[in-house]
Amino acid sequence: MVVVIGAGHNGLVAAVRLAEAGRDVTVVEAAAAPGGGVRSVERDGFVHDECGAFFPLAAASPAFRALELDVEWVNPQVAMAHVLEDGGEVALHRDVEDTVASLEACAPGGGERWRDLVEHLWPVRASLVQTALGPFPPLRPAARVARRLGRTGLYLAASTSAGLARRLSFDERAAGWLAGSGAHADISPFEIGSGAISLGLNFLGHLVGWPFPRGGASRITDALVERLRAAGGELRCSAPTEAIERGAVRLAGGERLEADAILCTASPAVLTALLPPDALPSRLYRWRYGVGTIKVDYQLDAPVPWRSQAARQAGVVHVGGTVSEIAESAIVVGQQSLHDPTRAPQGRHTLYAYSRMLDTADRIDERIERFAPGFRHTIANRAVRTPEDIAEANPSMVGGDLASGSVKADQQLILRPDPRLCRYRTPIRGLYVAGAWVHPGAGVHGMSGWNAAGLILGRCGLRSW
């Protein structure tokens, strides 16, 4: 018997892999519904994604490719538009040449340099994904990448978004386009490691797009739960864990679930409270959470009147401006209903917006209005989730940190979360870990759950694609 604590996507991916391999699996979840950060909610006929909304990592993930979930994906040709205050934009198209043209219009020479970089990376694209998402250390794929990229690979891994933009001959506005993708995480475009995040997401825009599920993020969770139950696994919601004991999980109320293996996906603040004091390495008791997120769900009477034409077609809009503006006031905006009419009543639209830099919904409204005059007049209603609201709904997201731990360089690779846990096994016999706080980290890719399940099964590895 395996007990999985937490029914977020990593817990469910692990449970499905274990159940379909013939193991008895029970997933216990404190919340009333599964999904964690991969969940959507309907209000007045509008479907809003609560946390995760766009899924390039899922599209590239060996785990999701192996699972082949019954999910219908929507994949806009304009994955992302980075808007500029004069009405211009730099757009990330799925097509490389269209992206080159957009960059050239903003920063002559920068588009050509972007094409050169993409072409240099393209022959090792599968190895790059396996290096980033596989168990640590990813010896074979990393060796293939190193042979192809040499010192350039080391530079890209440690670069800042701002520094990489300079190397690509981008001006401050094109640098904002690159840095905006790094703003999905709690890392400044001037910090080491931000370049790898920004480059990775934009490269994935060409490799797989930035897709999302028709009908809402919950479709991913629903598909995982369906597969789990079809394989004989059990899901128990409203079942908070009170303690992890030797060979058992004790639920609130005293019920004990005997287990040969326990996989905990709850982040360190939750996990350490379930164990005796000092049972785990000290880093977990000092785990640093990232900047909290404010999230606004809008109900609109019309599409956002962006000055930018590309933004009117994009799945995601980054607001916006120069690299310095991104560092101070970035907003990630999702326009799912432009491409998925199931998200809103006919003729109306949803809008998804979050920021780590701006601290109120009014400031988010004001910032969007600067790039889309008349935006406020389209708003019929809005629902605001503060960092405190997010943390209350999901205790793993301490302070409203969607990644369950800062993604800065000192909390990556073997330091996510600790050299003794980054490969999913803990010093406690039979206890394993997964989640956004465990390598390979944040984002909806399911790989820590997939890799941990493989370790439990004794055959940890990746299926090539």
Task: Briefly summarize what is shown.
It contains 19 helices and 19 strands. It has helices at 9-20, 56-60, 62-67, 96-106, 110-121, 125-133, 139-149, 151-158, 161-167, 172-182, 194-207, 218-230, 268-271, 282-285, 323-329, 361-371, 375-378, 387-393, 447-457, and strands spanning 2-5, 25-28, 40-43, 46-49, 73-74, 78-83, 89-93, 212-213, 234-236, 241-245, 248-251, 256-258, 261-264, 294-300, 316-319, 331-334, 349-355, 379-385, 431-433. Strand 3 and strand 4 (46-49) form a beta hairpin.
Describe what you observe in this structure.
The protein is of the alpha/beta class and 465 residues long. 36% of the residues lie in helices and 18% in strands. The chain has a seven-stranded mixed β-sheet, with helices on both faces. A five-stranded parallel β-sheet has the order 9-2-1-13-19, with helices on one face. Strands 10-11-12 form a three-stranded antiparallel β-sheet, with no helix packed on it. Residues 460-465 have low confidence and may be disordered.
